[in-house]
Each structure stands twice: as C-alpha cells, then as structure tokens.
Amino acid sequence: MSETTSRNRSDRRRERTRAALVAAAKAMLTTREPGEVSIQELTDAADVGFGSFYNHFNSKQELFEAAVEEVIEEHGAMLDEITADIEDPAEVFAASVRITARFPRTHPELAKIIDRVGPRYITSDSGLAPRALRDLQRAKDAGRLRFEDPAVAIACAGGALLGVLHLGLTARKPAAIDRAANQLAENLLRMFGLTETDAHEVAGRTLPRIR
Predict the structure, then answer these.
(1) N or C: which end of the chain has fewer CB within 10 A?
(2) Coil, helix or strand at residue 10
C-alpha cells in the first residue's frame, strides 16, 4: 500500500469520526442543553472511542459550536435552493420566513435546535442571518420593502420568527403551524412597507416544494 493511499484512508476515517461526533451533538441539541451532556455520552452516541474526541475538538463547547454552525449553514443552503426560482425579492423573503416557521411540522428536529440556540441563530455570520439581510436588501433596492438600519430589521424579523417557531413546537394541529407562518410573513411584509393587500397576497402565494 502506498503512503498516499494510507494517508487518504486515514483522512477519511478522521472525517467519518468528526462527522459522527457532530451528528451526535446535533441529536443531543434536540432534547438537552449542552451543559447537561458529557463527552462520554457524545462519544458513545457517535460510536467512537473517548480518546478520539480530542483528535478533533478541544472541548465539548467547541463540538457543540461546530454542530450549531453546521445546522445554520444547512438551513441557509436549503432556503437558497428552495427560493432560487422566485423572482419577486419580497416573495423570496416571505417564502424563507414561511418555510422556516413551518419547521415544527416539516423539520421538527431542526426546529428544536433553532429554538434551543435562540438569538445566536439570527446573529451568526453564516446561515440564515446573512441570507435574510441579502434578501431584504434586494427587496429594498427593488423598491419592494423599506427599512433603515439593516441590523434592526434582521433583529425584528428574526426575533418574531423565533417566537412563532417556538409557538409552533407547542401546536398540536399542523394547520395552526401553517397559519401562524403565513401570518408572520404577512405581518413582517407590512412592517417593511407593503400595503395590507399586497402583503396578504405575497404571503399567500404557493410555496415551492419543501424537501
């Protein structure tokens, strides 16, 4: 076996071990606070040796941060893919809100992680926040939406989204989750300058298929 082949196999094993640890941390985030979880529990859930942990992460906190960042980026990439064919920038923003607020029904595990992470989710440099800012700015440049301070706009929209998502996790009827998601999008569009009629129409458009 060549040195290169051996190194490639070793790299793949390391990648699999790291991925297993991150997946275990993500699963833990759906039910428990990071402080409640031990490294032993994480390595057991990942089915890797305890000593392997420190080959990839310096601390439990570092692992959970990596897990959160992966979730944030996966969420943002999902929204980009789903809304790629929408031309109206106001609808792109509204669709992203409506899709995310439906997560308690469509992606419950992801919804639980977002709910647990809380405000950090809307201030991250990756994932949802920069994409939402991009979409809002495009809608503003197109004359569809109005706002002054982008940071305040994101805080208002993100805070409302987190609240409705949390509400959705307690809802028993799927229809209630969908209704709240649409109402949230409509209210945000009105807050950013659309008329009541226009906001209602945009927030009621058929959503792209959610994968």
Answers:
(1) N
(2) helix
Same domain, 23 and 74: no
3, two tokens: 């040195």
Residues 50, 39 contacting (CB under 8 angstroms): yes
Q: Chunked in runs of 10, what are the mean pLDDT values of the chain (211 residues)?
A: 60 89 95 92 94 93 93 90 95 96 95 90 80 93 96 94 96 93 98 98 91 62
Q: Which pTM was predicted?
A: 0.87
Q: Within this chain, do residues 91 and 187 fall inside the same structural domain, yes or no? A: yes
Q: Dihedral (C-alpha) 18, 19, 22, 28: value to the nearest 10 degrees?
A: -120
CA distances from 4 to 52, 56, 96 (A): 22, 22, 44
Instruction: Name the residue range of residue 129's domain.
Output: 68-203
Confidence at residue 30, expressed as pLDDT on a 0 to 100 scale: 92
The residue with tokens 């977002």 is 114
DSSP H helices in 30-173:
39-46, 60-82, 89-101, 103-106, 108-117, 128-141, 150-170
Report whether 189 contacts 199 (CB < 8 A). yes
Tokens 């800012």 found at: 133
Q: How far is CA 10 from the centre of its chain?
A: 32
> What 3-state DSSP class applies to 142?
coil
What CATH number is given to the structural domain containing 13? 1.10.10.60
Angle between helices 174-191 and 150-170 (to 10 degrees): 160
Residue type, 4: T
In this prediction, residue 6 carries a pLDDT of 54
**Domain assignment of residue 155, yes or no:** yes
